[in-house]
Amino acid sequence: MVGLKRRKRINIQDLDLQETVVNINRISKVVKGGKRFKFSSIVVVGDMKGYVGVGYGKGPEIADAIKKASENARKNVTNICVIDGTIPHEVMGKCSASKVLMKPASKGTGIIATSKIRAILEYAGIRDILTKSLGSNTAINLVYATLDGLLNLKNPDWISKRRGIKKEKIDKVKGKK
What we know:
Distance between the termini: 40 Å
Number of domains: 2
Strand order of the largest sheet: 1-2-3-4
Helix content: 25-40%
């Protein structure tokens, strides 16, 4: 899977996952007898509490493509660091020629993003964030670039433990009291 790092497998039976179809694309192949059509789809699943997964599926019918993408998304559910409905720090995600810049936002800002990026952020449980998509705006690349950025987020507890400093000092630098 493009853009995903090796992570600990999560038991999805414990989660209340919801899913949405982000994109459906028709692919045509020209053969001797005419055109053959296939469909591809992108599905995002999440529990809106920090767990999110993205899946991509292809099939001869739309329903088959969505089913495959949904199964793929459920296999790839991962945990995202969400603090007070936003992300802990600014991060850039990249996939192919697409880049997505994500910045934490104050409470009440909402999700400022395109529809493809918005879906993955909503299902991850993020309520306030500022985003900017740079480069290519292909749906699959935008979704995977967003997921890459979310996977690169660092938890303040992890940072304080790794650097050997107190968490309060990290919060003070960020402007929190």
